[in-house]
């Protein structure tokens, strides 16, 4: 019998070692770690049984028994962890810590059982069929150990039934039954030993359990898929370099791309300080996100913390290849600049076309009105001169767009005259009251014509300014103007500016029914009308522009001066 058990125990030990080798070949995920630890403790336990078979003295048997407990105290605990991982069930941390504490306490008791009576009240060396055994009288600690093993077995059964009932597919149900056998085989062999034979049969039960575990891993393929996927992603990221650090900034690993970018990582020791291994990486980790260039590529670094249960346990340096993004961004910026340039050019072209159309229509009106030759062009230039002074002062806060829109649309202020009858428009003398009322309609009609001409081809702000100039340039500050008798700031600013230019040109220009006034007379009339006809806040700009206006009109008939730019 002894020879038979010697061969059986030796074979079981070899099988357990071989199983440990096979399991160590797996990637260390959560499930695989528990299996590796379980198999390691089984190997220790197997060694203890083999030593007990070879013991020839009580001292040798005591040592063997201690080795058996060194492995046996943790076997069922790690079986439970493995099974819970398979069933995707998490137990509270406090429960896990209590179970570990119990296993550790039993280990201490077992290692010192020859100095107290908690585990065995008494023990002696015996023999059954030529096989040495330790005959003992059990103490309270052993009863507690057996009770805990029974609780483990009940937990396995409950989990197996629960998993079996919640998985209708045959393959998963088969796996749950196999896992149940993994846990129950050692228990069954222990019960058989106690009821039938005093010879230890647990090694054979453990051997069967290990074979079943290997079957599940290699045939049923119950790998830790999450862990495998994480490892695969970590190693196969071709565009991102990853460097793992612990809380003390010590190097803990990196992927292939990181080692290509930083060759010093190839020979770096696990746990070495980062600043000693790579000054470049240490500066990246300390200074945060600065682009890193290598091998003609641009990498964007980020330092991301790694947390476990709300506590920082390390960090990862990510260096992502953003070369394509940067190139794409440059192309986008280049395309945007070209697009903006094209839009500006087309807008300028459209504005020039609009201006030519406006001036063309204004010329048509002016050709019909024989009494105001050149009035539209001259008033437009006067508006340009006044606007330049107002814009330079900045007191009114006019924008460049507003000023440019007034200058562009000033030629349209009398566009409504195209709708006035020739007998009135071309009349050389003064109008009768009835004729004057008809003539006054050119403001409202002008606003309507301007709206039709510019609507849909000009922006809303320019359209509004043009309509206001056409409709309200004959309104007066005191409310005595037309067509709506607006008063003060009710009159749009653009119309108030246009009013000064319109009246000044009428005063200093020769008409068929009057002579041109002198500059001094015109100046006095305009300044005296500030606060009644004109906006008094514009007086200082008119005075500021006096010499420039007089110079303009002095040479207006000889050579048209180049218009001032706004």
Describe this structure in words.
The protein is of the alpha+beta class. The chain folds into three domains: 2-227, Up-down Bundle (Rhopdopsin 7-helix transmembrane proteins), CATH 1.20.1070.10; 238-321, Beta-Lactamase, CATH 3.30.450; 334-554, Hypothetical protein af1432 (Orthogonal Bundle), CATH 1.10.3210. Helices cover 62% and strands 9% of the residues. The protein has 22 helices and seven strands. The chain has helices at residues 2-24, 30-54, 58-86, 93-111, 140-166, 170-195, 202-218, 225-236, 256-261, 274-277, 279-287, 323-368, 375-393, 400-409, 422-425, 433-440, 442-454, 460-472, 493-508, 519-528, 539-544, 546-554; strands at residues 120-128, 131-138, 240-245, 251-254, 292-294, 297-308, 311-321. A five-stranded antiparallel sheet has the order 4-3-7-6-5. Helix 1 packs parallel to helix 7 (202-218), helix 2 (30-54) packs antiparallel against helix 7 (202-218) and helix 19 runs antiparallel to helix 20. The radius of gyration is 50 Å and the shape is rod-shaped. The relative contact order is 0.05. The model is unreliable at 559-566 (pLDDT under 50).
Text of the CATH class of the largest domain:
Mainly Alpha
Can you give the helix content as a percent range? Answer: 55-70%
Specify the structural class.
alpha+beta
Number of strands: 7
Q: Order of helices and strands, N to C?
A: HHHHEEHHHHEEHHHEEEHHHHHHHHHHH
CATH homologous superfamily designation of the largest domain: Rhodopsin 7-helix transmembrane proteins
Number of domains: 3
What would you call the shape? rod-shaped
Percent strand equals 5-15%
Largest sheet properties: 5 strands, antiparallel
What is the CATH-assigned architecture of the largest domain? Up-down Bundle
User: How would you state the average pLDDT, rounded?
Assistant: 80
Instruction: State the distance separating the first and last CA atoms.
Output: 115 Å
